[in-house]
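Thread: quick sanity check before group meeting

JM: Hey all, I'm pulling together slides for Thursday and realized we never actually wrote out the predicted structure for the chain we discussed last week. Dropping the sequence here so it's in one place. If anyone has concerns about the input, flag it before I start.
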Amino acid sequence: MKILVVLHDYLPRHTGGSEIHAHQTARELARRGHEVTALFTERDLAARDGERREGRLDGVRTLEIVHQREYADVRESFEEERSLAVFRRQLEELRPDVVHFHHLALWGSRCLAAARASGARVVVTLHDYHLLCDVSTLLRPDGELCTEAVHGRCTACLRRHPVWKERWPGLEPEELWAQAARARFERHRADLAQAHVVIAP
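JM (edit): ok, ran it. Output follows.
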């Protein structure tokens, strides 16, 4: 079976929990005879955005896509148009039977629908709170637990992104942030429904 493992970062440069878990899973699947590819992003200001680099780690084929992680507007941070286009090209080339998302940051949740439309079975493992919280922690900037994000009302973390005023015509700043938070929440909720299986460890 062809399995595509997708996440924001990957070993060996990034050694967080989701990266380690995704690689351990991918490595075991490869050991069992499946054709496994890990698709992830990396920031590299010396390279062209979207550049693709191939490699191999412990029997797992790796595809690294350069993502400079810069946005002109807050909406781009969750719609990820460029990443969606790159992801669709990888789907066309790789034609996976299963796509297992371990993180949607820098790819955007719209990739779930793209994976499903390709005919693949779609699995999502939720390692953190990214779909609710732009910084993935559900902690406010003052370190306190955020209770508003679960309702799509938290704007604190989104404010780290720039705003392109033309995309938000006629809105005062507070209205703009509230609308951005709600749009992000609804986008992720609708897209997560495209998964065949969701795992929340």
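AS: nice. Residues 173-192 form the longest helix (20 residues). Helices lie at 17-31, 76-79, 81-94, 110-117, 173-192.
JM: adding both to the slides.
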